[in-house]
Design a protein that fits this description.
The protein has 305 residues and is an alpha/beta fold. The chain is 45% helix and 18% strand. The strands form 3 sheets. It has an 8-stranded parallel barrel, surrounded by 8 helices. Strand 4 and strand 5 form a beta hairpin. The radius of gyration is 19 Å and the shape is globular. Bound molecules: orotidine-5'-monophosphate (OMP).
Length: 305
Amino acid sequence: MSIQTLVEKIKEKGNPTVAGLDARLEYIPQHIAGRNMMLHGETLRAAAESMVAFNCGLIDALCDIVPAVKPQAAYYELLGSYGAMALKETIDYAHAKGMYVIGDIKRNDIGATATAYAEAYLGKTRVGDTEIAPYGCDSVTVNGYLGTDGVEPFLKECRERDKGLFLLVKTSNPSSGELQNRDMEGKPLYARMAEMVAKWGEGLDTPCGYNQVGAVVGATWPEEQKIIRGLLPRSYFLVPGYGAQGATAKDIANAFNDDGLGAIVNSSRGIMCAWKKTGRNGEDYKEAARAEAIRMRDEIVAAIR
Ligand SMILES: O=C(O)c1cc(=O)[nH]c(=O)n1[C@@H]1O[C@H](COP(=O)(O)O)[C@@H](O)[C@H]1O
């Protein structure tokens, strides 16, 4: 599914947000985790099955109001081979419920290895005469700081399979300026990366006007958002950092274009752990996640209006 599909889902739901599915065991209510540990002991399998059950519950609670989910690969890798299966099951369930899936993998490597990553998460792998999509994400996050040959395999998937990318431009973390804001021939490095993103997106515009090659721009950096928006008017921005990392709705307005489009704001812990604030031991985790997703949507829509 292309960025155009994401834009259509955002418009249809009137909601420019994405729910991050980054579960650790301590984010999963006891009634789910306890049951799986009773069945499978204190094992990676129990943790992975808990994660799938939790994710599916969240997806059920959110799919009619939130356009997309963003599973972060690290939390699935943490559970070994069971985690890989949990990721695939989560992606398939989100698709079955009509959601757009952003695979947060932040990968890159030399061209040959980047090809394997691109085929694993966006494309297909060949087994004999059969082609199989190992994960089948709609788009992924990519670290472009290795340069063009590491990004090209991902661009190939955009061209051939109508997929999307979000290239790290200005990340949300406190130390991101150590390198990303350093001067590079008269401009900060993140601005140079934005120029590269524009170049990589050439020929990949979609009919809705937005390009298949987007950018990751942290909610925690409103000034940089404004500069990068100016450099990349037709790129979609994935904006993490809202909620648990401290950014609020007033910090994200610069990421959007005047048409109210152009960015999708992520919240992971804010939605997943909303149940921890209700004092009901997680029995109400779906309702709590939905209420937080609605609160976030309304706050962000009001801020960009
Ligand atoms: O690519 C990302 O999504 C990302 C980039 C970035 O600059 N900062 C950032 O926090 N993220 C991811 O966004 C999510 C943020 O999670 P919360 O802070 O719990 O909302 C995590 O999955 C991060 O890995």
